[in-house]
Specification:
alpha/beta, two-stranded antiparallel sheet, six-stranded mixed beta sheet, 294 residues, globular, 8 helices, single chain
Length: 294
């Protein structure tokens, strides 16, 4: 990696540190603060509580539904499952989806690595997924980001199911898994996501570009599938075609959201046309707020 690239990464990490520390407050900026693994106190059930945490003996004794809380873990082993397949080499606003995915890697490795947590990654560039062993702290996050950005670009189609499977095989203890992808994959990745969610707290970060949701009226467009090289011409001046495209795109995003929700994973959508750092901070703050009342 040349000096200019290293300076660019340093600027990105500085931006993330300053803005996230400014937008999120507290000594422990927990990323998706979870239930932990150590048993805690029993309390009355509240709407929205996970029924898997029901304390049946206490419920039977009191005839009032109770759940068993757990003590939150403060040292996690977090894994990032990073999809950088060729479908992310697309962008029409501020950056490519690939650039946004790398920015998300930098942000979530920083958040997950606070407090001495270990952060590793499994990355696919359009080919077999490669693992980066977990390392602790800010230095580990910096090293991980450099390794991800230095990986050579792939040319074949991505395999999200294989990426999720390999990530699951590397998680040796309960912790956090962050899946960063556009989720545009014909393979049945939902099953692997459910398997990953059995032992891990999972956050799915969906990367998209506004043009994927609706086509502009710009006449004839020559579109190329970056994973297969297939060409197709579309007439964007046709209002009915644009409406059908928007309907199909909304249905696709609905299926993605349903697959993530069905696996019991959290879902964050980042767009190349939005303030991605503020969206991340808002999401994390909302999760912390919800966790505080459970």
């Amino acid at each position: 990696m040349d000096a200019a690239s290293l300076r660019a990464l340093d600027r990105l990490q500085l931006l993330i540190t300053r803005r996230l520390d400014g937008l999120l407050h507290g000594d422990y900026l927990g990323l998706l603060p979870g239930p932990g693994s150590e048993p805690g106190e029993a309390r009355e059930y509240r709407p929205g509580d996970d029924v898997r945490h029901m304390d049946w003996p206490v419920t039977a004794r009191t005839t009032v539904p109770h759940v068993r809380t757990t003590v939150a873990d403060r040292e996690l082993e977090a894994w990032l499952a990073v999809d950088l397949s060729p479908s992310l080499d697309f962008g029409t606003v501020n950056m490519l989806k690939r650039d946004l995915a790398i920015n998300a890697v930098a942000a979530f490795s920083y958040l997950a690595g606070r407090g001495g947590n270990r952060v590793g990654a499994v990355v696919t560039e359009g080919g077999p997924a490669k693992a980066i062993p977990p390392r602790p702290g800010r230095a580990g996050s910096r090293s991980l980001l450099r390794t991800v950005t230095q990986m050579p670009k792939g040319t074949g189609p991505g395999d999200l199911a294989e990426l999720l499977d390999k990530t699951r095989r590397h998680t040796r203890r309960r912790g956090l898994a962050v899946v960063i992808s556009d989720f545009i994959d014909e393979a049945e990745w939902e099953r692997e996501l459910r398997r990953l969610s059995v032992r891990q707290q999972v956050l799915c970060v969906e990367i998209l570009d506004p043009a994927e949701l609706g086509l502009p009226d710009v006449g004839v467009l020559d579109l190329i599938d970056p994973e297969t090289g297939e060409h197709v011409e579309v007439q964007t001046g046709n209002a009915r075609f644009r409406a059908r495209y928007a309907e199909a795109a909304a249905a696709q995003r609905g299926r993605i959201a349903a697959g993530i929700r069905g696996a019991g994973a959290a879902h964050l959508r980042l767009s190349t046309g939005a303030d991605w750092l503020r969206d991340i901070a808002t999401f994390v703050a909302e999760r912390r707020h919800l966790a505080a009342y459970r």
